[in-house]
Amino acid sequence: MRKLIFVQREIEDKPGVMALCTYLKSHGFSAEIILEPYKNIRKIKNIKPDFIGFYVVSSAVNWTLDLCRYLKKQLPDMSTILGGPHPTFYPNVIEQDGCDIICIGEGEKALVHLMQSYDGTLSSIENTPNFWLKKNGTIIKNSLSPLLTKEELSALPPCDRSHYLKHAGIRKSPLRRVITSRGCPYSCSYCFNSRYKELYKGLGTMVRQRSVDNVMEELKEVKKLGTKAIDFNDDQFLLSRDWILEFCEEYRKFINIPFVCGSTANRITHEIVATLKSAGCRSINFGIESGVERIRKEIYNKPTSNDHIYNAADVLHAHNMRFLTYNMIGLPEENLEHVFQTVRINQEIKTDYPWCSIVQPYPGTDIAGSMLKGEINPQVKFSYSYFQSSVIGDPEKQKIVSNSQKLFAHFVKHNTDFDSFARLVQSHSVKIHFYPLIFYWHYGLGVRQRFSYTWLGLFRYWLYTRS
């Protein structure tokens, strides 16, 4: 029997990896997920996989390639497969030592095709759709197969979580992640969805939502695990009014566990929020990104106006629904006034959880093309976390961006004025060493409140996610 294992660094359950693993097993192949691969090398060697797969985001590509090279020394007869956003939008990663094969786009049918065709030689899989592979110094490039249809998506088996539950950090977590749809109707410049639509043009419908029955089938299994909170990780959970109304009715009957979900501000209405709250929704997330409407629309290509943001906040407050706002800082053209406008709009709408990241122009995103021409470090190496570092070349600007991000929630929750904001983010004093602690306090408090963590559980969560 052909064997494939997925390995990952993060101590968290990844719905996409679970879906691939489950789909392979449903077709009779051996598939397993292994966390902390350096600690589990003996287990990996005992399995003797034909392939080792990685879900790769741009911030993790260097770690992934280092691990690929290490594993190939340990298991010279196996092949590495890199899938996910980075190889999809930066396929030249296949040229790197340690990477044998890349999967571009959706992986379910492609992986099954690969496993069915493989006879132990690369020649047997060199024509597999969605895959690029190296053979005798040549890179073979195959075209994409069509996207899964809505009906095919709704027929996928419920995710097998047993692989992740072997790890105590995940097993003891009160939180489970679920994805009910694929695709996003928007094309924000910092997100991969814009390029994804170009990639799959003419190859199917991009935005697809699983049937309510199919989602409920998975959620009933999730409930059996003693889950106390569910995080719906969809790019856009509020895709369809009718779907939400049907979903909430079924969720109340069969699941009845607190959950959080995400949307865009313009889709947040009184009817939808009231329905979500009646089903147990604890918090709704939506993106502001920048308090400067011009930056939000023209640079980030996010079709959200200030009026949308204020109206959404009014609706959420009217229903006593907590909400998280996503924000970004770190564009080369941003100045102190621009950053403070982002702080200020969050103050005005009284967000419960002001979340702020640092702009990372990942390869393949539209924003990368514009930022890479600007004032950024030409030797840019992306941080593993979008909370840690800026790609801007000017050290003084880097410091301001970092300090602003670390203190963002503090500024919002304490209604800090511009003068105090400017003084603190430009500070060179010893107190800046405490800024990360302020960030982690607000971030941790938000995680605890939204996902039912105890303080001890939150500390474990922090330890595991930093491993």
From TrEMBL:
Residues 1-125 form the B12-binding domain. Gene3D superfamilies: Cobalamin-binding domain (3.40.50.280), tm_1862 like domain (3.80.30.20). Coiled coil: none annotated. Its cofactor is [4Fe-4S] cluster. InterPro entries: BchE-like, Cobalamin-bd, Cobalamin-bd_sf, Elp3/MiaA/NifB-like_rSAM, Methyltransferase_Class_B, rSAM, rSAM_horseshoe, rSAM_sf. Residues 170-404 form the Radical SAM core domain. Keywords: Iron, Iron-sulfur, Metal-binding, S-adenosyl-L-methionine. This is B12-binding domain-containing radical SAM protein.
